[in-house]
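User: Hey, quick favor. My workstation is busy. Could you predict this chain's structure for me?
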Amino acid sequence: MNGTILTVDAGNTRLKWGLWQDGAWRRKGVLPAGEAGCLDAQIMPARPEKAFVSCVAGDAPRAELAAALARLGGGVTWLQASAQAYGLRNAYAEPARLGPDRYAMLVACLHLGLAPCVVVGAGTAVTVDALDAAGAFLGGMILPGPALMRQALAAGTAGVMEVSGRLQDFPRCTGDGVETGIWRALAGAVADLRARLARAAGVQPLVVLSGGEATALAAVVDEPRRVVEDLVLEGLLWIARCSDAQAR
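Assistant: No problem, here it is.
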């Protein structure tokens, strides 16, 4: 692949980007989602030849991001999931409705040789997806992330306020009870899908975690597990490579 490739993971809370050139990541950066329009200022003086974007942010950040990419010039591909591409078979009932971030992570895990695996995107929301050894996405779950769980408890109950706490074997105060409950609930979702995939695959699958809460969640997930930084960007890069090869 010639030229500079820009990959962009625009999430609900943060926007992460990476510049790939000559076989290596040259620069990476992070912006708050509300500052998506500042992306071009961070990227310049580089002028990417192509940009590949996963965007699950709202309409306003998406519009600001589109304007920033237009100022950079070059072609832009907004990723959308399909039923079969890049070696991945997507079993979603409506394949195009699978989130582009989940789709990119699945593609990355497949091409990194990590399948069969449970792919966990741990951020504002937490996604837990099953990928088999043949490259089929079987399905998955979406849960509120830790911050959303805390907010829901604080807003929806009279006795649980926004208090700090720690993960404990046997919580003995409200803060510890909330924090332990959050992380054990997320770990339970991962363990449940892993057990289902193990029965289907006949082997114990790896759990692959990425996102802002990945390291914390990994601490309560059983081995074998692996934290992979910027998994969405890695998937976008593989997709860019495949697109480049098909264009030749």
